[in-house]
Write a structure and sequence with these properties.
Helix content is 80%, strand content 0%. The chain contains 14 helices and no strands. It has helices at residues 3-24, 30-35, 41-66, 71-88, 95-123, 129-155, 159-180, 203-233, 238-266, 268-288, 292-303, 305-320, 326-354, 357-376. Helix 4 (71-88) packs antiparallel against helix 5, helix 6 runs antiparallel to helix 9 (238-266) and helix 8 (203-233) runs antiparallel to helix 12. It is globular. The two termini are 21 Å apart.
Length: 384
C-alpha cells in the first residue's frame, strides 16, 4: 500500500480514538454519570474542561517529547496509552480517577493530531494532499456518529457498557495505528544530541494560525447549543434533536471526503474560501429559516467541518515547502485549544446573560466569514 494512504488510515484511527472517543463520546455519557451518582454535575463539567486543557498541554510538550524518541515510536506509545485511558475510564473510581485519564486523552490527541497529520501531508502526492487529510479527519466524523447513534443504545444497558463500547472501538483503532507506523521513518532527525530545529513561521503560516483560531470559535455554537436550540427554542422533540446530531456525524464522514476530492480538483485556496462560506451559512441559515430542509442542511454543512481542518492541514504543508510542518501545525493546534477555552467561556457567559441563540450563532457565523476573507488573501501556490 502506498505510504501516504497507510498513514492516512493510521491518522483516521488516531483521530477516531483521541478526538472521537476521547472527546465526543464523553458528552452522551454525562447524564448517566450524574444520575448514577458517579459524578456531581459540576464534577462532570470539570472532567470535560480538564480533557480540553490536556489538548493544550500535549501541544506544548511535543517539542520535548520529539527529542526523546522518534516520531513513529511516540505515535505508537500514544495509541497504547490512549487505549489504556479508555479502559481505565470504565472503573467507577470517582472524579479524580476519571479526570486524570480524560486529561491523558486530551494530551494524547494533540500529539496524535500534530504528528499523524504531519506524516500524511509530508508523504502524500501534491495532487492528493486534500484527499489524504480528508481520510484522516473522517475519524472525527466517525467518532461523532458513534457517540450520537450507537453509544446511546449501549448506555441503555448501563454506564459500564458505554465505556466498554468506546474501549472496544479503541482496540481496533490502536491495532490500525500500530500497523500504520510500524517501520515508518522519522519526519526529521530527532535525538538528544541533535535536537529538532524548527523553521521560522512564514506570513502565510501566521495567517493560517489565525484562520484556525477563527474556525475553532465558529464551531462552538453548534457544538454546545445546536440540539438545545432545536428543542427548547423552536419547540422540536428531543428525538428530533438527536436525529439532527446523527446527521452531523454523517456529514463529518461523507462531507469531509467530498471536500477533499473537490480541493484536489480546484485547489486548496479556493476550497478553503468555499468551505468557510458553507460553514458560515450553517450557522446563520437556521436562524432565518426553521424549515426541516434548512435545519437538515445546517446539520450536514456543520458536520462537514472536519473537511475544513483537512484542507487547512494540506495548505499548511504547502506553506512549509519541503520541511515538516510540525511546528506550524503545533501552533495551529495551540490556537484551536486556546480559542476553544476562551471562546466557549465567553459565548456560554454571553448566552447565560442574554438567553439569545441568534446572537451566539451570529458570532459563530461571523468567525467563519472572517476566516473566508483571510483565506482570500493567501498566496497562490501550484499543486502538481
Amino acid at each position: 500500500m502506498r505510504h501516504w494512504l497507510k498513514y492516512s488510515i493510521g491518522a483516521h484511527a488516531g483521530l477516531l480514538m483521541g478526538m472521537g472517543l476521547g472527546r465526543f463520546s464523553y458528552t452522551p455519557i454525562i447524564p448517566m454519570l450524574i444520575q448514577s451518582n458517579h459524578l456531581t454535575p459540576s464534577e462532570a463539567g470539570y472532567v470535560g474542561a480538564i480533557n480540553l486543557s490536556g489538548y493544550i498541554f500535549g501541544a506544548l510538550l511535543l517539542p520535548k517529547l520529539r527529542n526523546l524518541a522518534g516520531e513513529p515510536i511516540l505515535i505508537r506509545i500514544c495509541f497504547v496509552v490512549g487505549l489504556s485511558a479508555l479502559f481505565a475510564s470504565i472503573a467507577p473510581f470517582g472524579f479524580l480517577w476519571l479526570a486524570f485519564w480524560r486529561f491523558c486523552l486530551g494530551v494524547l490527541v494533540a500529539i496524535i493530531m500534530i504528528l499523524c497529520i504531519s506524516y500524511v501531508t509530508r508523504f502524500a502526492p501534491a495532487n492528493k494532499v486534500a484527499l489524504a487529510t480528508s481520510i484522516s479527519f473522517t475519524g472525527v466524523g466517525a467518532g461523532i456518529l458513534f457517540s450520537s447513534a450507537i453509544l446511546p443504545q449501549l448506555l441503555e444497558f448501563g454506564l459500564a457498557w458505554g465505556w466498554t463500547g468506546s474501549a472496544g472501538i479503541g482496540v481496533v483503532a490502536t491495532l490500525v495505528g500500530l500497523w500504520a507506523w510500524r517501520g515508518a521513518p522519522n519526519l526529521e532527525h530527532t535525538s538528544s544530541s541533535y535536537p529538532v530545529v524548527e523553521p521560522k513561521l512564514s506570513i502565510t503560516g501566521q495567517k493560517l494560525i489565525i484562520v484556525q483560531a477563527l474556525f475553532s470559535i465558529g464551531l462552538i455554537p453548534h457544538s454546545i447549543y445546536w440540539v438545545d436550540y432545536l428543542v427548547r427554542d423552536i419547540g422540536n422533540p428531543l428525538e428530533f434533536g438527536s436525529t439532527q446530531w446523527v446527521l452531523v456525524g454523517l456529514g463529518g464522514l461523507v462531507g469531509t471526503i467530498l471536500w477533499g476530492k473537490l480541493a484536489d480538483k480546484i485547489g486548496l485556496n479556493i476550497s478553503l474560501v468555499l468551505v468557510f462560506l458553507i460553514l458560515a451559512s450553517s450557522a446563520v441559515l437556521p436562524l432565518i429559516l426553521t424549515s426541516l430542509i434548512s435545519i437538515t442542511l445546517s446539520s450536514l454543512f456543520f458536520g462537514s467541518q472536519p473537511g475544513s481542518a483537512a484542507i487547512i492541514a494540506g495548505r499548511a504543508q504547502l506553506a512549509t515547502g519541503k520541511n515538516s510542518m510540525v511546528k506550524l501545525w503545533r501552533h495551529m493546534v495551540l490556537a484551536v485549544g486556546t480559542s476553544q477555552i476562551i471562546g466557549s467561556f465567553f459565548l456560554v457567559t454571553l448566552f447565560n446573560l442574554t438567553n439569545n441563540y441568534t446572537l451566539i450563532f451570529a458570532i459563530g457565523g461571523t468567525a467563519f466569514a472572517i476566516a473566508a476573507i483571510i483565506c482570500c488573501t493567501l498566496p497562490r501556490i501550484a499543486q502538481k
